[in-house]
């Protein structure tokens, strides 16, 4: 279609709400994901010290409960509960002690407040980091995919160099073997838990950027005859292969950390921000030449995050640009659109650099671009492509582009397997829904959940609302309205590739000359 995430649904105009839904999701994602980069950049700056600030309890933000060495092995049998083993601490008191990395994360980086209803003061250091990363994103995206493509050659490949360096270092540490074995040895009983399937589905959809419209936007710049079928397989293998490889890097270091502390690997393995900003920095602080490994890790994290942010912003801007026809041409139209997008997201981000910012971040993460919204989006995308536009018809289109027909398995996936899996995991998610909490302790207030559900529904309702609106606005019987609104609206460039019988039946989008301008701009 050579269009962004909205106009691409001209294959079935009735369901153009899918495009608007993906735009809402990717906007929310762009807004809160940048905070991971801001935190990573903050840690990167703090890594340039002879002694890492999260490795000791001698800082102004530390509390009396801070302790650097946990000798859990001395307390593993309950008979020592009242015996003093470290300084003036008994084993009973040791249970309430806190690591310096946790205190650095919560008291220095986040300076976290008591709840969502206590936003507190703004963290100016974190805000400056946020400004810097948004400026980096802007100047990498403002000129389009040509400039972004050149930058991504470095930002996408250099992390592999860092991963290999960290892996070589990790496997030479004591305890690395136990960590890696814990990683690759499956616990089959977990497959009986619905939450595992929900998390797996969510991770794959989020990792592949499915339903965000970003892949659609990037694909719109390809040649018409580009082998998108092969690209899809390559993308999947590289993406999941990198994740699998990175697991060895992470768990070799976590195995070392567990060995150093004398605890089981499961007690140091964390997920989410806890892995990147608590577990891994803690492990790095125990290694020789700690600042070097910390700087390498956070530099890699920053580059990987920038890649994801580039794609999200590019997807959003491309969709917005498609809404403005050629007659609104302006020399710096793209630069202005990117600037407005970045500025708007930055203003919302200011709520996440306050003392209550982590609660806002989790609210966005749990509701706005969560597995629930992405699964809903993917389900309807499959239904529209396979059952409204037609799976066989779509297969013919792909064959016309790449020169051969994809394996029939793809058609079965679009028609049956993927929609069923998406809806199954979605229903699992709804049945097993639990109110949002922070650290399994703080429970969000009712109005916080209402805000979260409003963010989730703002994208999910785009689809049914737009369908009903278009059907009511159309004229004729229901059958006539349906037939008219599901007839594809082709661009001028399609006539060069269509069979003669299709040319006579297809409708060109109104204002053919304007569309030629848009198509030409997109190709350029």
Total strands: the figure is 6
| Distance linking N and C termini | 15 Å
- Strand portion: under 5%
Q: What strand order characterises the main sheet?
A: 1-2
Helix coverage percent of residues?
55-70%
Mean pLDDT: 84
Order of helices and strands: HEEHHHHHHHHHHHHHHEEHHHEHEH
What's the alpha carbon Rg, rounded to whole Å?
26 Å
Secondary-structure-derived class = mainly alpha
Low-confidence stretches: 79-86, 510-524
- Number of helical elements: 20
Tell the overall outline: globular
Report on the biggest sheet.
Answer: 2 strands, antiparallel
Organism: Scomber scombrus
Membrane topology: Multi-pass membrane protein
Subcellular location: Membrane
Keywords: Disulfide bond, Membrane, Metal-binding, Sodium, Transmembrane, Transmembrane helix, Transport
Verbal overview:
- It is a single chain.
- The protein has about 525 residues and is mostly helical.
- It contains 20 helices and six strands.
- The strands form three sheets. It has a two-stranded antiparallel ribbon. The chain has a two-stranded antiparallel ribbon with strand order 3-4. A two-stranded parallel sheet has the order 5-6.
- The longest helix has about 35 residues, at about 230-260.
- It is globular, with a radius of gyration of 26 Å.
- Mean pLDDT is about 85; it is low at about 80-85 and about 510-524.
Key features of this structure:
6 strands; 524 residues; two-stranded antiparallel ribbon; metal-binding; disordered C terminus; mainly alpha
Quick gist of this model?
The chain has helices at 17-46, 91-94, 100-109, 124-141, 145-171, 176-184, 194-207, 214-219, 228-261, 273-285, 290-322, 333-349, 357-368, 371-402, 409-431, 446-460, 462-473, 478-485, 500-505, 512-523, and strands spanning 84-86, 89-90, 437-438, 442-443, 489-490, 507-508. It has 524 residues and is mainly alpha-helical.
């Amino acid at each position: 279609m050579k269009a962004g995430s909205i106009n691409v649904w001209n294959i079935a105009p009735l369901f153009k709400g899918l495009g608007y839904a993906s735009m809402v999701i990717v906007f929310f994602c762009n807004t809160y994901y940048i905070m991971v980069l801001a935190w990573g950049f903050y840690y990167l700056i703090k890594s340039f010290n002879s002694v890492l600030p999260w490795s000791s309890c001698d800082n102004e933000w530390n509390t009396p409960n801070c302790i650097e060495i946990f000798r859990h092995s001395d307390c593993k049998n309950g008979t020592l509960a009242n015996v003093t083993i470290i300084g003036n601490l008994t084993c009973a008191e040791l249970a309430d002690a806190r690591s310096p990395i946790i205190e650095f994360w919560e008291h220095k980086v986040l300076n976290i407040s008591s709840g969502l209803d206590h936003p507190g003061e703004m963290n100016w250091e974190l805000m400056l980091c946020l400004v810097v990363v948004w400026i980096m994103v802007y100047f990498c995206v403002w000129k389009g995919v040509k400039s972004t493509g050149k930058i991504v050659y470095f930002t996408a490949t250099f992390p592999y160099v860092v991963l290999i360096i960290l892996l070589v270092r990790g496997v030479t540490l004591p305890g690395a073997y136990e960590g890696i074995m814990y990683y690759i040895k499956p616990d089959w009983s977990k497959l009986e838990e619905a939450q595992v399937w929900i998390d797996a589905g969510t991770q794959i959809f989020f990792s592949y950027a499915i339903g965000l419209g970003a892949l659609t936007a990037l694909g719109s710049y390809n040649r018409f005859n580009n082998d998108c079928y092969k690209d899809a397989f390559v993308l999947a293998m590289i993406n999941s292969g990198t994740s699998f490889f990175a697991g060895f890097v992470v768990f070799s270091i976590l195995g070392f950390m567990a060995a150093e502390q004398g605890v089981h690997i499961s007690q140091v393995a964390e997920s989410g921000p806890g892995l990147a900003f608590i577990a891994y920095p803690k492990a790095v602080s125990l290694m020789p030449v700690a600042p070097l490994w910390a700087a390498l890790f956070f530099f890699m994290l920053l580059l990987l995050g920038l890649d994801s942010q580039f794609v999200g912003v590019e997807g959003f801007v491309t969709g917005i640009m498609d809404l403005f026809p050629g007659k609104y041409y302006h020399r710096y139209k793209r630069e202005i659109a990117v600037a407005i997008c970045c500025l708007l997201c930055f203003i919302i981000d200011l709520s996440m650099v306050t003392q209550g910012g982590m609660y806002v971040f989790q609210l966005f993460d749990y509701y706005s671009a969560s597995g629930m919204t992405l699964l809903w989006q993917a389900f309807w995308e499959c239904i529209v492509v396979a059952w409204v536009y037609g799976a066989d018809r779509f297969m013919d289109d792909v064959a016309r582009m790449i020169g051969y027909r994809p394996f029939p398995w793809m058609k079965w996936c679009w028609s049956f397997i993927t929609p069923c899996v998406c809806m199954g995991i979605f229903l699992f998610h709804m049945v097993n829904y639990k109110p949002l909490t922070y650290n399994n302790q703080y429970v969000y207030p009712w109005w916080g959940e209402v805000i979260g559900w409003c963010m989730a529904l703002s994208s999910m309702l785009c689809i049914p609302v737009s369908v009903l609106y278009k059907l009511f606005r159309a004229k004729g019987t229901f059958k006539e309205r349906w037939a008219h609104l599901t007839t594809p609206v082709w661009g001028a460039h399609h006539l060069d590739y269509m069979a003669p019988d299709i040319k006579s039946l297809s409708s060109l989008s109104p204002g053919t000359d304007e569309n030629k301008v848009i198509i030409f701009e997109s190709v350029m």
